[in-house]
Amino acid sequence: MFSKKADRLNLVLGENSKITGDVESPGTVFVEGCIIGNVLGGKVILNDKAYVRGDIAANSIIVGGKIDGHLKGKERVELKATGQVFGDIMTSRLSISEGAIFNGTAHMEEAEIKPAKKSENKVVEFFSKEIIKG
After folding, report:
1. Per-domain boundaries in the chain
2. Nearest alpha-carbon partner for 25 in 67, 71, 57
3. What are the tens digits of pLDDT across the range 80-121?
4. pTM of model > 0.85
5. Percentages (nearest 5) of helix, strand, coil residues in the chain
6. How would you class 28 by CB atoms within 10 Å of its CB: exposed for 0-12, middle for 13-18, buried for 19 or more?
């Protein structure tokens, strides 16, 4: 089920649970409760009842709950319809679903584009043909 190291579920904070202090995990952090502090992880998932007051930094961040803080997603940040972000977002890919609340600024980093190998370059020509009916 979990193939990459960052996909391993390392921390689950259940509903009605609270952590005060910074959280750091090399794998996936799944939050249903409350964290008052910064979160650093491989992947961070906030369920719809989750609340974080602090910054989140991870390769991938999925927000279904509420966060008062900044997000830094190296690969992507996704706001679900129930997600609320009150802070800035920095990421290379951003997805915001209808219904989500975002109050801040988004900074999109340019994706690294690698040049194609010469053998992979292909020229494709398209020809158009007009049909005239009389």
Report:
1. 5-120
2. 57
3. 999 999 999 999 999 999 999 999 999 987 543 344 444 444
4. no
5. 5, 50, 45
6. buried
Between CA 120 and CA 112 the distance in angstroms is 18
Instruction: Determine how many CB atoms are found less than 10 A away from the CB of residue 82.
Output: 18
51-53 β-sheet, strand order: 18-20, 34-36, 51-53, 66-68, 84-86, 101-103
Q: What is the pLDDT of residues 6-41, one digit of tens each?
A: 467 788 999 999 999 999 998 999 999 999 999 999
Report the 10 Å Cβ neighbour count for 61.
Answer: 28
Gap between the Cα atoms of 60 and 45, Å rounded:
8
Q: Closest by alpha carbon to 63, among 88, 51, 80, 75?
A: 80
What distance in Å separates the CA atoms of residue 32 and residue 22, rounded to the nearest whole number? Answer: 16
HSE-CB at 55 with a 13 A cutoff on CA atoms is: 8
